């Protein structure tokens, strides 16, 4: 099924006119860098016209005269005519999301920063308009088993007629540095979300002299295996949801043992007793789908990324455990846009080369033993990697990141994949850093409540320790949904 499988798996200008405000003094360097204007463009979530740019870079930097790919970037100009010279440079997550599709987030999270600074959105190679490696799922196509998933990835590999091995993190950083040089910026304020925090760390390792500050949100430290940590992180988030329910009289009455319901739901999946027969919520077509254990686990784990969606889980799991899968299917159909923002080929090129192979299977087995998620996250991506070509990361790719650069580290206390403990881990390498945990939030907090103001204050002062976070103190989890038309207070 299209929606279910995707949710478990976003005039010509003169050269001087398209240059970022902070770089106009360096026109000659920009021209020599090979950056070219494209047609003026608008990006979703930004009302004003932005500056659209493109630049050719080598597919393989070891063969600079060989095949080239075109990078696309958008610069959201500062609103002030007296803007600061150091922009916010956005590293998208995923891996496999396109920064050029972050207009909505940029308009919200960086609305105050943009008063005085440009916002730079570069589609990293393999995403967006930078030779996006899409894997299209046709309506009615079902992937109810890992074998189906592997076969789908194999077909996707055939559709992408390019050497996908070169879509690595190291080359992403090389690309970003080439664009920085062409634009003429000297100092950058890096923002990375989720996997983008890894990109921030690698860029900081390679080009520390060009980094003024960093903001990392939903931190994935390079020296922590996401697959080994995933079972414990998911179990923690599920247990926190269950604990919140137990502490609410109305929720506890409606769902007296949410965790037991999760276990019952997953037992049915493991036994092959979860089959949905009905209509595809997106197309209306007839649908007959068996939901495997891995898919069932990932359906729960992926929903917990969003605090808005998480409040539906007790209702959905309760219904599924009792045999009604319609709410489950509808939830994932409604969330299909999450996977629409992923360029799966870029995801696979990075995960299959740099994250899946590093997994210590003994450590994963120990972590999975007491988690509802078991090793499903690893099994899902490992199955995809069987059909994808990838290169390993750099020798130091998984070394800790350390720096004196001012750092603001953000975590959501309910995050099911990069919990606050990972933010604390990152903080160890940053003596001029501060870790802020946002209550009632899941994965990514930069656009939450007063956080945009705090981001602007940090980038302006570079003093994370002086930030007054009292404005975040009122936040808490949303009430749990008990039915299609009601919530628990």
Automatic annotation (TrEMBL):
It comes from the Bacteria. Keywords: Aminopeptidase, Cytoplasm, Hydrolase, Protease, Signal. One of its GO terms (biological process) is proteolysis. Its EC number is 3.4.11.5. GO terms for cellular component: cytoplasm. InterPro entries: AB_hydrolase_1, AB_hydrolase_fold, Pept_S33_TAP-like_C, Peptidase_S33, Pro_iminopeptidase. GO terms for molecular function: aminopeptidase activity. The keyword Signal applies. It is an enzyme of class 3 (hydrolase). The keyword Transferase does not apply. Residues 1-23 form the signal peptide. Residues 89-221 form the AB hydrolase-1 domain. It is found in: Cytoplasm. Residues 379-471 form the Peptidase S33 tripeptidyl aminopeptidase-like C-terminal domain. It catalyses: Release of N-terminal proline from a peptide. Its main location: cytoplasm. SUPFAM superfamilies: alpha/beta-Hydrolases. Belongs to the peptidase S33 family. This is Proline iminopeptidase. It comes from Kordiimonas lacus.
């Amino acid at each position: 099924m299209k929606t279910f499988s995707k949710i478990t798996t976003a005039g010509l200008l003169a050269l001087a006119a398209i240059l970022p405000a902070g770089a106009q003094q360096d026109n000659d360097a920009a021209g020599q860098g090979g950056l070219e204007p494209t047609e003026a463009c608008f990006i979703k979530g930004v009302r004003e016209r932005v500056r659209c740019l493109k630049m050719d870079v080598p597919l393989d930097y070891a063969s600079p005269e060989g095949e080239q790919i075109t990078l696309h970037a958008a610069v959201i100009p500062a609103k002030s005519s007296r803007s600061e010279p150091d922009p916010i440079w956005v590293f998208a997550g995923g891996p496999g999301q396109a920064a050029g599709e972050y207009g909505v987030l940029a308009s919200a999270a960086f609305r105050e920063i943009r008063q005085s600074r440009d916002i730079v959105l570069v589609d990293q190679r393999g995403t967006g308009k930078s030779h996006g490696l899409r894997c299209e799922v046709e309506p009615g196509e079902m992937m109810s088993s890992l074998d189906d998933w592997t076969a789908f990835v194999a077909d996707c590999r055939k559709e992408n007629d390019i050497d996908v091995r070169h879509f690595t993190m190291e080359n992403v950083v090389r690309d970003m540095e080439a664009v920085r040089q062409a634009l003429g910026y000297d100092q950058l304020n890096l923002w990375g979300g989720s996997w983008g925090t890894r990109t921030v760390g690698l860029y900081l390792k390679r080009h520390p002299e060009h980094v003024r500050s960093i903001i990392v949100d939903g931190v994935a430290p390079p020296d922590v295996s996401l697959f080994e940590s995933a079972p414990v992180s998911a179990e923690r988030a599920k247990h926190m949801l269950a604990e919140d329910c137990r502490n609410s009289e109305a929720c506890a009455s409606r769902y007296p043992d949410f965790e037991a319901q999760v276990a019952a739901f997953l037992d049915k999946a493991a036994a092959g007793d979860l089959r949905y027969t009905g209509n595809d919520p997106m197309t209306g077509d007839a649908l007959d789908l068996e939901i495997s254990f891995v898919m069932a686990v990932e359906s729960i784990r992926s929903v917990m990324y969003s605090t808005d969606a998480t409040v539906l889980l007790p209702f959905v799991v309760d219904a599924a455990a009792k045999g009604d899968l319609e709410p489950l299917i509808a939830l994932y159909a409604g969330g299909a846009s999450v996977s629409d923002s992923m360029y799966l080929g870029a995801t696979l090129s990075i995960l299959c080369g740099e994250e899946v192979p590093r997994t210590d299977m003994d450590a994963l087995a120990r972590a999975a033993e007491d988690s509802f998620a078991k090793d499903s996250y690893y099994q899902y991506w490992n199955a995809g990697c069987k059909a994808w070509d990838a290169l390993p990361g750099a020798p130091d790719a998984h070394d800790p990141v350390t720096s004196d650069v001012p750092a603001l580290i953000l975590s959501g206390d309910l995050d099911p994949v990069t919990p606050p403990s990972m933010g604390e881990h990152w903080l160890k390498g940053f003596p001029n850093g501060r870790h802020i945990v946002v209550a009632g939030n899941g994965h990514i907090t930069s656009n939450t409540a007063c956080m945009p103001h705090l981001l602007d204050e940090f980038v302006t002062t570079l003093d994370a320790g002086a930030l007054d976070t009292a404005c975040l103190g009122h936040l808490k989890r949303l009430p749990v949904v008990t039915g299609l038309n009601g919530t628990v207070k």
